[in-house]
Write a structure and sequence with these properties.
alpha/beta, Molybdenum Cofactor Biosythetic Enzyme, Chain A, Molybdopterin biosynthesis moea protein, domain 2, Molybdopterin biosynthesis moeA protein, domain 3, 4 domains, seven-stranded mixed beta sheet, six-stranded mixed beta sheet
């Protein structure tokens, strides 16, 4: 042990009592650190709300749709006028009414038909049965049948989306576009494809049911209905739904402020140019940028990012500057090395260090410093990333009040060795076989070693191997943990 370490005031704590802890127990203690956190609420616009967590339910300010709306380009008509034009009320076509539901143009069965025309009658109808209409609550009218000419209906108006139309008089039709208000008096929209028409008249040539091609008022949600619930992490689809329901200002959970501290004499900034050389014995500090990106993606606000040498005074200064944070993350110096001064200094401040039964990521620290939760993570990049997935993400989700994602399993395609007694988090790729089954493939033949940082870039997830398993075999089912 070097003289500098022996003379260090924290050196007496460099070799603490060895404590082991299960993954689940350490996670429970990590979550306990955030129990007193009380998040505030921010009010933001729609663009800034993406990725934030909703603080309150969003209720519809109006019906959606707000009015009866045409679902097609075509003609708004009174269904009774279509029935009257055929000269019949209830005709039995020999077709089950359920079969007629949603039927538009029938196939021509190779006999040929003009565009927009209905093919000859189908099903068990006798040859002399003229297609006409089916009565009842969902009457169906069929036009253009042999020997029975449908009546022309005058087209008296043209309605575009955004217009507020006048009532439709009996015996008339209005040309209407998709999204436009269906005029009072009309109860059916005939698509252009099911009509013969000119600029001034239209004639039914397809099939029409009462209410066809109309989106009814409140069909999606009604006034006051809940559209989004508190705790939802807002994605683009949520923003669209909320704005459609009348929301423009969003109440969201204030983002927890996280201070990031990376430690190590060996750490250096990335070179200014890819071809530049690092100083001898130096490595790029990849943990810092990774943690900034990961915490931002989780919905936290990174309040500071500091890189420190293996010097207690330097680390003390960084901690003092981070005292306003809601969480402090420190990487490096968490193990039992002669110069792991971060561990010794943090232990003197009340942070407990343990050996968690996991691979990678065994050395972990957790505690409060001046009332602020502190997590000390291993410095090896893969270990740090696994620690974020296993411990940091659940803590941030807890602070934000979000629901953990559902648990997912997949089937192992090619096996590997594990370490009995430790829960293994193994970087894997996910593929699919011909049946659609999700299969797990190891990323690297060298296993879940803590220094193989580029293996994370090639991985789709972490496969979770239970503590009592020492060999993963093809066909085994393993839980998957998402990577950040």
């Amino acid at each position: 042990m070097s003289d500098s370490v022996i003379n260090d005031p924290y050196s007496q704590r460099l070799m603490p009592r060895h404590i082991e802890r299960s993954v689940d127990e350490h996670l429970r203690l990590v979550l306990e650190l955030g129990r007193h956190y009380r998040p505030g609420i921010d009010y933001v616009g729609s663009v800034d709300a993406v990725g934030r967590v909703l603080a309150e339910d969003v209720a519809a300010s109006w019906d959606i749709p707000r009015f009866p709306q045409s679902a097609m380009d075509g003609f708004a008509v009174r269904h009774a006028d279509l029935v009257g034009s055929q000269g019949c009320e209830d005709a039995d076509l020999g077709i089950d009414s359920g079969e007629l539901s949603g039927v538009g143009l029938a196939p021509d069965h190779g006999r040929g038909s003009e565009p927009g025309r209905l093919a000859e009658s189908r099903g068990d109808a006798p040859n002399d049965a003229s297609p006409c209409c089916v009565g009842g609550g969902g009457e169906r009218v069929v036009g253009g049948s042999p020997g029975l000419a449908a009546q022309e209906i005058p087209v008296v108006a043209r309605i575009f989306a955004g217009d507020w139309p006048a009532s439709l008089a009996p015996g008339t039709a209005a040309r209407i576009m998709t999204g436009a208000v269906v005029p009072p008096g009309a109860d059916t929209v005939i698509p252009f494809e099911q009509a013969d028409y000119t600029d001034t008249t239209m004639r039914l040539s397809g099939a029409a049911s009462r209410g066809a091609n109309i989106r009814q008022r409140g069909e999606d949600v009604g006034l006051g209905d809940t559209v989004l619930t508190a705790g939802t992490r807002l994605a683009a689809r949520h923003i669209g739904a909320g704005v459609a329901a009348g929301r423009s200002l969003w109440a969201v959970i204030r983002q927890p402020k996280v201070a990031i501290i990376t430690t190590g004499d060996e750490l250096a900034n990335p070179p200014s140019r890819p071809s530049s050389d690092l100083q001898p014995a130096k490595i790029v500090d990849s943990n810092g940028p990774y943690l900034v990106a990961a915490l931002t993606g989780l919905g936290a606000s990174v309040s500071s990012y500091t890189r420190c040498a293996d010097d207690p005074t330097d680390i003390e200064r960084a901690l003092a500057e981070a005292k306003e944070a809601d969480l402090i993350l420190i990487t490096g110096g968490a193990s039992m090395g002669d110069k792991d001064v971060a561990r010794a200094m943090l232990q003197s401040r009340g942070v407990e260090f343990v050996a968690v039964k996991m691979q990678p990521g065994k050395p972990q620290g957790a505690g409060l410093v001046d009332g602020v939760p502190v997590l000390s993570l291993p410095g090896n990049p893969v270990s740090a990333a696994v620690s974020v997935a296993v411990f940091v993400r659940p803590l941030i989700e807890s602070l934000l009040g979000t629901t953990p994602p559902p648990r997912v399993w997949a089937t192992v395609a090619h096996g590997w060795r594990s370490v009995r007694g430790r829960r293994q988090f193994y970087p894997v790729r996910l593929n699919y076989d011909a049946t659609g089954q999700c299969l797990i493939e190891p990323v690297s033949a060298r296993g879940a070693q803590s220094h193989l940082v580029t293996s994370l870039a090639r991985a789709d997830a972490l496969a979770v191997v239970p503590e009592l398993v020492d060999e993963v075999r093809p066909g085994d089912h393993l839980e998957l943990l998402a990577l950040l």
